[in-house]
């Protein structure tokens, strides 16, 4: 009986066609693999590189407070962190294809 319901529904509705929607945004995982933060741990400076244009970079402490921000508009940049206290930070990288975050340790 259930099989009969599916057959009649299929005939009434017709086949379902799935269309992939194109997007200029990458998945979080895909973008994370395209952005690099090094040296990590950092002492005085660290570098950010991406396969896509980096719009800007924000650095947050573990309490969520923004401690640094830099406009980039290029594929790489260096960020001076000699004024930050030792600890763990989150680097938010905003690119033309989306946003990703990386952990950074400052010594």
Features of the shown structure:
107 residues, single chain, 5-stranded antiparallel β-sheet
Termini separation comes to 69 Å
Shape: globular
SS class: alpha+beta
Number of beta strands: 5
Order of secondary-structure elements: HHEEEEE
Most strands sheet:
5 strands, antiparallel
The level of helicity is 10-25%
Q: List low-confidence stretches.
A: none
Q: Give the mean pLDDT.
A: 82
Please state the CA-atom Rg, rounded to the nearest Å.
22 Å
Beta-strand fraction estimate:
over 45%
| Structure annotation, total helices | 2
Descriptive overview:
The chain has helices spanning 2-13, 28-32, and strands at 35-38, 45-61, 66-80, 87-95, 98-106. It is of the alpha+beta class. Strands 1, 2, 3, 4 and 5 form a five-stranded antiparallel β-sheet that branches. Strand 1 and strand 2 (45-61) form a beta hairpin. The radius of gyration is 22 Å and the shape is globular. The termini are far apart. The mean pLDDT is 82.
């Amino acid at each position: 009986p259930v099989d009969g319901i599916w057959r009649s529904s299929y005939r009434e509705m017709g086949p379902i066609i799935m269309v992939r929607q194109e997007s200029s945004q990458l998945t979080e995982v895909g973008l994370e693999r395209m952005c690099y933060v090094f040296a990590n741990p950092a002492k005085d400076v660290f570098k950010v590189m991406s396969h896509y244009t980096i719009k800007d970079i924000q650095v947050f402490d573990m309490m969520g407070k923004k401690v640094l921000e830099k406009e980039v508009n290029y594929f790489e940049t260096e960020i001076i962190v000699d004024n930050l206290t030792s600890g763990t930070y989150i680097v938010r990288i905003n690119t033309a294809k989306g946003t990703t975050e990386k952990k950074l340790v400052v010594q």
